[in-house]
Structures are given as C-alpha cells and as structure tokens.
Amino acid sequence: MRRSLFLLSLAMLACTAAVSARAHAQAMSGHAAHAPMDRAAPGSALTPELASAKAALSKYTDVTAALRDGYLSTVGCIDFSRGAKDGNITYPPGAMGVHFLNMGNVGPKLDPAKPQILIYAPVNGKLELAAAEWFMPVQVAGGKAPVIFGQTLAGPMEGHQPIMPKNLRHYDLHAWLWKSNPKGVFTSTNSALTCPAGAPYTYDLSDAQHHM
C-alpha cells in the first residue's frame, strides 16, 4: 500500500511537471520580478565542489537545454514573502522561484552534476537560472537524510503544494549557484528573488498557518 501511494505521488508530480517552459513564460510576461538560510556564510565564495557543479550545470542557463535533458516546468513561482515555518524547517522571507523537475534523476544516490531540480527566476517575462536543488523522497532515502557537498538535506518535509502532492514527503537542499543569496548559498529561500506579484502562477506559501 505504501509503495502504491509513493508511485501514485510520483506519477502526480510527473503530470504536474509536464508543462512547457514556454507556456509559463507567456503567462508570466508583463510581470517583472524585482530583484534588488544558508548553512554557509552569506557572500562566501563557492567551494571547489560547488564551483565544479556550477560549471557542469551552466549549460542550463538556456532553459531549452534543460527541457531537452528532461527537466519539465512545474509552472508555479513559489514565494515565501513573509517567511514560514514547517515543523523544524524555517523559510526566511524570500522566494524559491520556478522549479523544473527531472524525474530521471530521482534515485537513492545524489550526483553533483545531476540535480533533480533546476530553479529559475522570472525576470521581465523570461526565466533566468538561479539555483539547483537536490531532492530525494523519504521512501527512496531509506530512513536516513542524504548528504551532498558536506550538507545534510533538510527534512523530511511535506510536498510543496500546488507544484507537488502534499503527501510526497522528501528531503531537499538548495544551492544558489547563479543568483547570490544574502542568507547564504544553501538557504532554501532567497530574498534577492521575488515572484511577480499578481501573476496567475505565483504561489505565496507564507500562509497564516506557517507564517513566521
């Protein structure tokens, strides 16, 4: 039963992801993003391992390259404008942006060159690569939080609706490799990134229940 629920959750997530970046960009056009908690110091230089990962992934600054390699847009721009708290996880005020998911990279091992998610910032109707995210469902992790870049992934946490099913519990780690994050490279949210206010696919998750 548990395995069936997990497979159903992944299937739902894959269906959600199967929306083209072009459709998202068109929906976002005309709504400019106004760009001005990391376990790494704010403003610190990338470690050699992170710099290597950034170089390997820089081809995805072209969103078409991401689509060709199996990354599919979840459409929604995820915002935490007032910050939020979900269990033991704190999201400082900021945004996450638009997630592109590659289901082919989901598995029990994490590869610096194959993040499960790429994150784009909507800027003047276009999508600019901002971060990569390493993601692992709880069922795949085998009861232990994964580690990459010397960082233990945050979690477990519920899926972030509406871009993934709530029951898709998982671990994740954001790495802001292209857009500087005032709170640090590994902080989940980035105060230097905002989702277009009033856009139809902006979702602010800093609701009353999780408001800091």
Overview of this protein structure:
The structure is a single chain. The protein has five helices and eleven strands. The chain is of the alpha+beta class. The protein has one domain. The strands form three sheets. A seven-stranded mixed sheet has the order 9-10-6-5-4-1-11. The longest helix is centred in the N-terminal third of the chain and has 16 residues. The chain starts with a helix and ends in an 8-residue tail after the last strand. The N terminus and C terminus are likely disordered.
Describe what is shown at a glance:
The chain has helices at 2-17, 21-28, 48-57, 63-68, 138-141, and strands at 72-80, 84-86, 89-91, 94-101, 117-123, 126-137, 147-148, 151-152, 154-157, 170-175, 202-204. By secondary structure, the protein is of the alpha+beta class.
Structural descriptors:
disordered N terminus, 11 strands, alpha+beta, 212 residues, disordered C terminus, 21% helix, 5 helices
Helix content: 10-25%
Total domain units: 1
In spatial order, strands of the major sheet run: 9-10-6-5-4-1-11
Oligomeric state? single chain
Specify the biggest β-sheet. 7 strands, mixed
Which ranges are low-confidence, i.e. pLDDT below 50, for 5 or more consecutive residues? 1-43, 208-212
**Beta strand count:** 11
Element string (H = helix, E = strand): HHHHEEEEEEHEEEEE
What's the alpha carbon Rg, rounded to whole Å?
16 Å
Mean pLDDT: 82
What's the helix count? 5
Distance between the termini: 36 Å
Q: Structural class from helices and strands?
A: alpha+beta
Shape type:
globular
